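Obj: model holo form, ligand = zinc ion.
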Amino acid sequence: MTSIPQTPSPRTTDVISRALLALLLLAPPLSAQLVWPDEEGPWTPRPTQPAIVANDLRTRLGILAHDSMMGREAGTLGAFKASAYIAAEFQRMGLLPGGDNGSYFQELPLGPTGFDLLASRLAIGGTTLKPGSDWIPMNPSAPNGIVGTFAGRNITVVYGGVWGDTTTQLPASVKGKAVVFAQPPAPPAAAGRRAAGLARDRRAEQAGAALVLLAGLDQMNPALVANAFNRRIAMRPSTDAPSTGIPGAIISVATARSLFGDKHHDELTIGMAGSRISGNWKHQWTMAQYPARNVVGIVPGTDPLLRNQYVALSAHHDHVGVIPASQAIEHDSLRAFNTVMRPQGANDRPGPPSAGQWAEINALVARARSIRPPRIDSVFNGADDDGSGTAVLMEVAEQFAAGPAPKRSVLILSVTGEEKGLLGSRWWVDHPTVPLDSVVSAHNMDMLGKGRVTDVQFGGPAAIQMLGSRRLSSEFGDIIDSVNAVRSEPMVIDYSWDRTNKLNRFCRSDQVSFFSKEIPVTYFSLGYSRDYHQLTDEVQYIDFEHGARVGRFVHEIMTTVGNRPERIRVLPLAERDMSAQCGR
Ligand SMILES: [Zn+2]
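Output (holo structure tokens):
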């Protein structure tokens, strides 16, 4: 049915305009309206004060989680800028440099590693093959004796049978040749992780061949193929990487056929020769242009003897960077989806939403659209993870620097590379800038921004999730509990994660590095939220009052530990809780 337009009567117009006026008066101005209940408006940075307060955290995190920090990936400009800001603040506060060579920094040997597309080539006769679709180089692999560098001309190819069929011997004629292997059919159980070269096979290397060519490209995970020439950021390879072995490439079945006069491998016999190939590639690690750096500052203790011992505080300033603009996602749609489907962000792998869940998601998106236009996002700002812990770390440092300092010295460690495997904290404990046995306790903070009742289970304005406090030293846990018992603003400590180690929680942040060196360590966190490792982990959703409260709590614990006449006792081996298997 089509409705006929009507001219409103004067009376109707009057009613409408009065209703509209009432609505306009009730509603905040459109620009100040916020989409999400936990969202804050913009904040203007201002000078910080010694006390650990929410507004200082707003200023600090506004800088750390800004788009200009580009997601703070270790080994990139973003994390480099973040580390520069932190060091400048340490200096301004009056912390002593605690890094290498009298500086605040400790550089990690971290940088891009992989194959350079432009410098990689494989050709049959005079025909250059197309990298990515015809072939990709094999990554260096010690188990398969594969090295990352190849340079050869006019090498004859020889058929070598099926890869991994180690019961069949290769003929001596493969010496100096390029051996082409057929990819074995993937067993059904391994169908999910079909990776070419998974089976161990060193026959070609042992027979003195020059090159391995595995016809497995068609069966490979397309994402792995697409990334074959993308360099990733990794630690400098250790010297026990394979220095002997032979290079390899993974080729398509079509390429393999063209090497043998268009014959399928079923028609070939082992030892049969084909065309000649030439090529070159090189797997290379280089130091990052913008080095990944731990930032280390010290507040000297007041006692002439105890000041040679340290109470350590750590948080990681790195995050996971950016995604290509082509993969950018609309912010409010993603947050709507995760609000309904993934309350713990990347930890949750839900199936497709039900009709009811889609209705909820669409309602949230519609509400967002009624307030602001779509916002395409490609920066992982890492406001909660772990911009929040880093901002609190700087606040605690500022408070200690202003005094009073405890009898023991305070070691402030803003570590990098956590997201790449706890690299910065591991590097520090393996290359400590103060004697490792002088560190009496460590306090690690990761994700101090989202502890509301709407964010996490057992959340609330004073909630804190704590892990590890009694694993190496029951005394450490007792001290924390007794500090908390008499505070004017007590915390509500949630030990449930420590008891269950659900999601392998204890092993997933920098406490592991201290634990591995038998340093009593406690992990402080407000928990995983819907924004965990999502593009939506942005500063406007952080609960700064909560973070400041945790900062004051940690400051008081460190002061207590730092002032005790005796250092914290580490439990005898048999009494330690080693139940968390962190694989180190
Ligand atoms: Zn983290």
